[in-house]
Design brief:
It is a single chain. With 981 residues, the protein is of the alpha+beta class. The chain folds into 4 domains: 280 residues, Cytochrome Bc1 Complex, Chain A, domain 1, CATH 3.30.830.10; 180 residues, Metalloenzyme, LuxS/M16 peptidase-like (Cytochrome Bc1 Complex, Chain A, domain 1); 190 residues, Cytochrome Bc1 Complex, Chain A, domain 1, CATH 3.30.830; 206 residues, 2-Layer Sandwich (Cytochrome Bc1 Complex, Chain A, domain 1). 43% of the residues lie in helices and 18% in strands. The strands form 4 sheets. Strands 1-2-3-4-8-5-7-6 form an 8-stranded mixed β-sheet, with helices on both faces. A 6-stranded mixed β-sheet has the order 14-15-19-16-18-17. It has a 6-stranded mixed β-sheet with strand order 22-23-21-24-20-25, sandwiched between helices.
């Protein structure tokens, strides 16, 4: 990190009530330099040390060196997204994003000359299909598309791009499409850069739209998932009302259903040729490289691209909203409210002020919504989000009602807070605290290559001047209360917003994308192109792995009777201290409730509101996480405020007092949240899996009954908190202090001379063994069907991690894995699918085998059959296994466990009995010796032809009962059986 910037951050954090008013223009300014034949711009004192190049063809290259880890985070971005979709071909940018993983005339093909003949036929067939309205003729054309696609697929190699990247040890191989951009990203070992650039050069040279009809079906699945997502529907309704003259509102990112049904490959290709040009694209990298060397490599790889004029997206200026626009959205989840105000776009000063204003309203601790609505329990929840886009920004706010409260009452409460904001009814000290907390957050992220590259990518795609962004961030301290008041009065009034009521009910207007007839295509998993062979043969330097030495990297100390495990923070002046207790929800069902209640109570000297304000003013964070058999109480912040933060925590835990009024509202909200959980399909699925694993009495429903909840008293929860404070714990410390200096700074929660409180015995839950298939079903109003396979597998074995990791990579995790290739690529049965052989939470437990498919309900039988086939018989792919193995080896060699992660690694290692060694070394050494025969034997022993519990969430009336019954004995669970209340 730049030393001047370090100093600025620390100085700003140490200022409690004084505004920084020093002008930043002399400190941060654009400068220019030359690097051989390349000229680049940079901002003086930029903490990310980014160089901004522009190649002769107009390609923007932004490079931010960071040698902390021998890896590189790369973004390849084009400034075109759903906003620039043709209005008769919406969803096109997103289609194209998917297709850019399919390869070129070199990647992903065995014989392109033969394949192209068939691909050209498919092109023409889709044009006919697009222009035909007669359904009988359309069906016949699609049957021909399916037939020819099957022939073309014989020449294709599915997922070869993913195999290429995985073989390099790449991680996070993915992409996303938004309104203003489409971005492709990978995180790669630094020694793979030549291979990576060779692949990316080819990827964007001449993409081939192969395997299109199966991928289009995947897009259908993604669209249907969004139509089942109530939040997605509510936000889309908000955007449509805010932007009737702009594609932010007129078009959705995934596209209209009618357009998805009628794609044009020619239109997709034309879109690529129009927008994927160097003068509209950027390559942004942060990581371990020399920028002078990297720019030469990128120029050599991408200099071939030719610039072309880019169409300017034009739109009519939005008319002011004169009266609140009200929209209704229905769906199965609990009711809530969304509101949106329209504001200027990303490159304006107003967009930055919006971000600050949002933190005044909500910052998780001391914002107006936090204190006046959530902590006071006037609503069940309230939230704020600055949705900043290129042409406009949106202030999105929302809330969930308490029991008996209407959505209109929620709206009135939210609007009332906006009115208070306009009148300046908030403390000036809050702005200082926001600055301090923002600076602390930057210290946490400043050395993170992913954070750096993401910030630079965002500035590029949104066309924000990097100097303005740095100045705006650093000038936060000069924003005054009057600035916020003026901003609020300029943009917010009683009429100029959109409100969306998300009602609970059946959406009668919902149109789903229906399943077309698709014949499974071959994936040719044992084939590879000449291009892949060429890439694999390229020379590469070796990165030597680095292993932790827990005797050197971790301090093991004693503070009175307590164990202290510490790792020194050598990067900055931040600390994180955790009190780890050997008790959890299995020990005491009241503990999670007591911890939640703590948010709403204070001490004899401080109210709950004052406690939140005090932590936030110190730029400190406080969190309690209750696990099954472990509870972690954590505080973090600036080391200069360590003592005050510790005192605040101790005072709260030791001296918290019951508040009857707060308790009554708390219990009412708990009852409401319990009811809401029954309309959440994810919660229902989690309950089904827990039922399948443990039986009718399981950890998921091991909570208070309605009767027990009604009999609960405020004093009961406070007693649990006091008991927790008096239990024996382990201190986990990450921060600047070491050794005796650290010990001298510690304070005990327990008073000297008093005994530690006993840890309550834990409820024991034993995973079930089954001898035949069984089905657990829950009815839910949705068109998709979520299916989970579960089985309790073999007991944990300490030296099995290498084969488990390789098995998961080869079989079930990632786009190059067998599951993804079979279920999604070959058969187009799901957007999301995976399988994993999961390590238990403790060494005295067994592994779990999980598999998942989210599919259209009319594909249920096909999807379950397809997954069962590969669970029972492992497809053989020597090349696939080699790619998975090499990728794991390279990924492990380039991994670096630094900072706080060392502490976490030690705690996990100790739990599994190998705290003297870094288990990754054993995995790394063993991977090279594992063969396909080993993986096949593992699959046969642990996976194939075993009974499974099938957990299914779907709409009963839409599902064929025979499809369920033929899997196994069906037990339809009621919500009370699942949830326990």
């Amino acid at each position: 990190m730049n030393e001047m910037f370090k100093s600025l951050i620390v100085t700003a954090l140490l200022i409690c009530a004084v505004k920084v008013t020093v002008a930043q223009s002399k400190q941060y300014e654009w400068k220019e330099a030359t690097d051989g034949k390349y000229t680049y711009k940079y901002v003086s004192n930029d903490p990310m040390r980014a160089r901004h190049y522009k190649l002769e063809n107009g390609l923007t290259v932004i490079l931010s060196p960071n040698a902390k880890v021998p890896r590189i985070q790369s973004y390849i971005a084009t400034k075109a997204g759903s906003k620039t979709d043709p209005n008769n071909q919406t969803g096109l940018a997103h289609y194209l994003e998917h297709m850019l993983f399919k390869g070129t005339d070199k990647i992903g093909t065995k014989d392109y000359a033969s394949e192209k003949v068939l691909l050209d036929q498919i092109d023409e067939l889709y044009e006919q299909y697009n222009k035909t309205t007669d359904e009988t003729k359309r069906t016949a054309i699609y049957q021909e598309i399916d037939r020819v696609s099957g022939e073309a697929a014989k020449y294709a190699i599915a997922n070869e791009y993913d195999k290429l990247m995985s073989s390099m040890g790449a991680e996070e191989i993915n992409a996303f499409t938004a309104y203003d951009m489409t971005v492709y990203h990978e995180d790669i070992p630094k020694n793979m850069i030549d291979k990576y650039l060779a692949v990316q050069r080819e990827r964007f040279r001449n993409p081939v739209l192969r395997l299109f009809h199966t991928e289009l079906e995947t897009v259908y699945e993604e669209k249907n998932m969004s139509l089942d997502d109530d939040q997605d529907k509510a936000i889309e309704a908000t955007m449509a009302a805010l932007f009737p003259n702009h594609n932010y509102g007129r078009q959705t990112i995934l596209g209209d259903v009618d357009h998805l049904k009628n794609p044009s490959l020619k239109a997709i290709r034309e879109y690529f040729q129009t927008y994927y040009v160097p003068n509209n694209m950027g390559i942004i990298m942060s990581g371990d490289f020399d920028p002078s060397d990297m720019i030469q490599k990128i120029d050599a790889a991408f200099g071939y691209m030719k610039p072309r004029p880019i169409p300017v997206y034009a739109f009519d200026k939005a008319e002011p909203i004169q009266q609140p626009i009200i929209r209704e959205v229905k769906g199965p989840t609990a009711e809530n409210l969304y509101m949106g105000f329209r504001l200027p776009g990303a490159a304006t000063k107003d967009a930055h002020l919006l971000r600050v204003l949002c933190k005044v309203l909500q910052n998780g601790a001391a914002g107006m919504f936090d204190l006046n609505l959530v902590k006071s329990q006037k609503v069940q929840d309230a939230w704020v989000y600055p949705y900043v886009l290129k042409d406009y920004a949106v202030l999105l706010i929302g809330g969930s009602p308490i029991q008996g409260q209407s959505l209109d009452e929620v709206r009135q409460l939210l609007v009332a807070e906006i009115e208070k904001l306009k009148k300046g009814e908030f403390s000036e000290d809050l702005l200082t605290a926001i600055v301090n907390n923002d600076m602390r957050a930057k210290m946490e992220k400043i050395d993170d290559r992913k954070f750096s590259s993401e910030q630079l990518m965002d500035a590029f795609t949104m066309e924000i001047d990097w100097l303005d962004k740095i100045n705006a961030e650093e000038n936060m301290s000069s924003i005054t209360k009057q600035d916020i008041i003026d901003f609020a009065n300029t943009y917010f009034n009683a009429h100029n917003y959109v409100v969306v009521h998300k009602r609970q009910g059946v959406d009668d207007n919902l149109v789903k994308v229906q399943k077309p007839a698709i014949t499974a295509v071959p994936v040719n998993r044992n084939d590879q192109s000449a291009f892949l062979t060429q890439i694999l043969a390229m020379p590469e330097s070796k990165i030597e792995p680095q292993w932790l030495d827990f005797d050197k990297d971790v301090q093991k100390l004693k503070f009175k009777e307590l164990d202290v495990v510490a790792v020194q923070n050598k990067d900055n002046s931040l600390f994180v201290q955790t009190y780890q207790y050997p008790t959890g929800r299995w020990n005491n069902k009241l503990l999670p409730l007591a911890v939640a209640y703590l948010d709403f109570i204070g001490t004899p000297k401080k109210s709950a509101e004052e406690v939140s304000k005090a932590f936030y003013k110190l730029a400190s964070k406080f969190n309690i996480n209750v696990g099954d058999e472990e509870t972690n109480v954590s505080i973090s912040g600036l080391n200069t405020n360590f003592g005050e933060t510790v005192d605040l925590l101790h005072d709260l835990l030791e001296n918290c007092v019951a508040d009857q009024a707060a308790f009554e509202m708390f219990i009412a909200n708990i009852k409401k949240s319990r009811d809401d959980a029954k309309s959440d399909k994810s919660a229902i699925m989690n309950g089904l899996v827990s039922y399948a694993k443990y039986g009718a009495k399981n950890p998921f429903n091991n909570i208070l009954t309605d009767e027990e909840l009604a009999a609960l008293k405020s004093e009961d929860l406070v007693a649990v908190l006091h008991e927790l404070a008096n239990m024996k714990y382990t201190i986990l410390y990450y921060g600047p202090q070491v050794g005796e200096k650290l010990i001298a700074s510690l304070k005990s929660l327990k008073k000297d001379g008093t005994p530690y409180a006993a840890v309550p015995p834990a409820e024991r839950f034993q995973a079930r063994s089954i001898d035949q298939n069984e089905v657990y079903f829950a009815d839910f109003k949705m068109k998709q069907a979520d299916i989970r396979w579960y089985r309790s597998a073999a007991p944990y074995i300490n030296d099995q991690k290498a084969i488990v990791d390789l098995y998961n990579s080869y079989f079930g995790v990632g786009m190059g894995a067998i599951v993804f290739q079979t279920i999604r690529e070959a058969k187009a049965l799901a957007y999301s699918t995976q399988a994993v052989y999961a390590q238990p939470a403790r060494p005295d437990r067994s592994y779990d085998m999980h598999a998942y498919v989210g599919t259209q309900v009319d594909k249920f039988d096909d999807a379950t059959t397809a997954m069962n086939e590969i669970l029972n018989t492992l497809p053989q792919s020597p090349q696939g296994l080699e790619n998975a193995k090499v990728g794991l080896i390279k990924s492990t060699a380039s991994e670096r466990i630094n900072g706080r992660a060392i502490l976490n690694a030690y705690v996990e290692a100790k739990k599994f009995g190998h705290e003297q060694i870094d288990i990754r070394k054993s995995v790394y050494d063993n991977l090279a010796h594992l063969t396909l025969a080993d993986i096949t034997a593992f699959h046969k022993r642990e996976i194939s032809n075993k009974p499974y519990s099938y957990c299914v969430v779907a709409e009963e009336n839409s599902l064929n009962a025979e499809d369920l019954n033929k899997i196994g004995q069906v037990k339809k669970l009621t919500l009370k059986e699942i949830f326990g209340y």
